Amino acid sequence: MRYFLLGPLRIEGPEAVPAGARLRSLLAFLLLNAGRTVPAGRLVDALYGDEPPVGATNALQSQVSRLRRTLAIEHGPAGYRLAADPDDVDVLRFERLARDGARAREAGDAGRAAVLLREALGLWRGPALLDVADAPFAAAQSARLEELRAAAVEERAEAELALGTDPAELLGWLREAVAAHPLRERLRGQLMRALRRAGRPAEALAEYERARELLAGELGTDPSPELAAVHLSILRGEQSPPPPSSRLPAQLTSFVGRDDELSALIALLGASRLVTLIGTGGTGKTRLALEAAARLPGEVCFVDLTSATGAVSAARTALGLRDTGPLIGTGTGTGTGTETDADAHTPAHTPAHTRTGPSGGDAEAALVTALQDRNPLLVLDNCEQIIEEAALLAHRLLSRCPGLRILATSREALGITGESLRPLGSLDTASAVRLFTDRATAVQPGFTPDGPNSPLLHRICTDLDGLPLAIELAAARLRQLTLSEIASRLDDRFGLLSRGDRTKPARHRTLRAVVEWSWSLLSDREREFAARLTVFAGGATAEAAARVCGAGPDADGLLASLCDKSLVEAGQGRYRMLETIRVYAAEQLPLSERELTVRAHTAYFLDLAETADPELRSSGQLRWLERLSTEHANLRAALVRSVGVAGSAGSADGADHPRALRLIAALSSFWWLRGLRGDVAPVAADMLRALDGRVPEGFEEEYVLCVLAAGAGGAASGADLARAGRIVAQRDRAFRQPFTAFLWAISAGPSAAAERPELTGDAPWSQALARAGAGHLHLFHSRVEEASRDLSASLGAFRELGERWGTATTLTGLAAVLAAQGDRETALARTGEALALFREIGVWEDIADLHVQRAELLEAMGDLAGGQQEREWARTAARRAGVIR
């Protein structure tokens, strides 16, 4: 979560700002000290001042307790601590950025200082601590922060003036700052210098006169020697250096949806001399680079390498230098000249034909001379087509031009020392919808994302991976198609999005052309491996990719290369393709190879499911739940293929019903614990239709679980349920899958299950669950003592196993027993333990039920407000579980 105090108090995250003034004040003071322990006495002083009322310490404890329901507040002997990253609190982030910016300016790095200070001051949205102004601590803290803000404005102005920022960009906020702090002479002098640079010396002299009169009238003093020196310089007509120029192409459309990435990129450019923005084609790397460059102070030069035949030649042209002959990368240099110092630094992978001969060296030397005494930002755009030349040029220029910074865009890294990479991924859904809406209104005025358009628009943006190029092309099709027609044609996305900007190079014009260009940069081995990766529906680990795609020990290297070339994304130990790239790559895989790869994929995930199933009833439950959750899309795809119903996606390799039933059995407990039964119910129903009343011999239990899975979505027929009932009735031994007895009890009723103890088996987990079931049945019939006995025994067994779901389920039963015995305080504590365990697992239906149970306990104890809050949380959990809207 992120917290905001520089303006209205706000929390960016799932939790709301506390309603009470005292609670808001407590939160604000803890935020000012985020990450640090604050003694209770200091908190009392902050909230109540020098004369706290009797019972203030108890009141503080109560207020902290209320905050701890939603925020991570730790309590120890030394006091209270809000467990938040200081950089997530705008006040603390501002202080750090302002401090770092001032240090950078003092060290002579005006560019980095300007970037840091711009970001620091951009955090202010109004007066500090606006919503807690009446708190005893607020006045002193507000004054301190306003002083820091004014000092940061002065530091930024100094950095901007040193960089030669266009004075038109400075005068507005400098005048506001002077009006807010008329006695700050440094600010006044900076405004005067900006006015002189803007060619308005008379106004600058007038500012001096105003300062002189104000200082004499208010303080009885004369202007400081520093301000007098600025005045004298203007009187003498001394000129400041002309502002540097920028050569950036003008943009014809608005910038939408990359605000966070823009801020991060600008910050990175302030800290690094070489930044490479990498990502797959169509993610908007060029546009983001141009927006960042336009917001940075100083000289900027844009070098478009899209169709360039040589990196040096393109750079010279962009800088307006006259071409003098054969250049680096053209292959026309003699290659016989004496090696220069720069040649000694040539990256090892640079081919001989790109090395600079005498004439190429002269051209490069002229480029170095033009940049050596300047501090420009060079934007090298679309480096991938001449990646080695671009890398060599960047290395040599940065080595010889100490004031130079480079921002490169590419589908792969330049791969040189000192490079900072900034990967650019897809837009989130909200930003993608904004981009579509913005572009749609250009071709269909009055287009709105609301009402009936909303679900279609979200689906289109999601199906197109949030890829800016694809979204813009889709929006342009509104000239000919309705939104519904666009959504229905996304299966043929390359045909649908085949019309683009005629002014762009062919490989950047359509969605297929963009992907084909990236594909053409791969080796044959990389193409083969990438095509096989398309069988993964939800990404893959390196180990899974190696086993399924048959790459063996080469898998790691191939994955790394595909990531470098932005065909595959890596994160948290997994590799995935954007759906657009996956669709294209799947077209490149011959049918015979696809069938082999699909079979390997299904076998791998069946093995994973059957390995994980018993672990879900052990102390390793959380770890295996997380692993199966990560692989849910792949597991579902394997199941769909095994069911093999006509029209089912991914069923090309044919049906294998025994394999499908094995998957259903192995995954049933996972689906229950993760609340995924509704998601897989349609697939289970397809399985039942495919079986058409036949139960494969030896798979009777698996058939029952399939019926139960389909029944969770209301898709099991009466005949299916009756057939499953007969199988259970005729069974005379324990189920192989321990969860079967529990799920059947949920369906048929606990009494029916209690009458058939032979179905449970003697495994410790099964026995613990059976004991819990007996306890809940006693409780249902108001046999409180018997319920307490069985549930206590079950709780001990589950805790010994280290299994969280069973432990939490038993704790809820014991809480009900305690409430029936009149011990509501202990009952509430038991539900708190259960709630923590259910949250660890992520079983939202049970979380919703438990919040209702806690609400009833609190209301019975007279805490109506607490009960209402619990019911709100229950509704939130139920919505997350999909139980209510």
Descriptive account of the structure:
A hairpin with a 2-residue loop joins strand 3 (73-76) and strand 4 (79-82). Helix 16 (429-443) packs across helix 17 (453-463) and helix 22 crosses helix 24. This protein has 40 helices and twelve strands. The strands form four sheets. The protein has a six-stranded parallel beta sheet with strand order 5-7-8-9-6-10, with helices on both faces. The chain has a two-stranded antiparallel sheet with strand order 1-2. A two-stranded antiparallel sheet has the order 3-4. It is mainly alpha-helical. Residues 324-359, 505-509 and 646-653 have low confidence and may be disordered. The chain is flat and about 105 Å long. The protein starts with a strand and ends with a helix.
- Topology, number of strands: 12
Radius of gyration: 34 Å
Q: Give the low-pLDDT segments.
A: 324-359, 505-509, 646-653
Span between N and C termini? 25 Å
Largest sheet: 6 strands, parallel
Throw out a few tags for this protein.
single chain; 885 residues; mainly alpha; two-stranded antiparallel ribbon; 59% helix
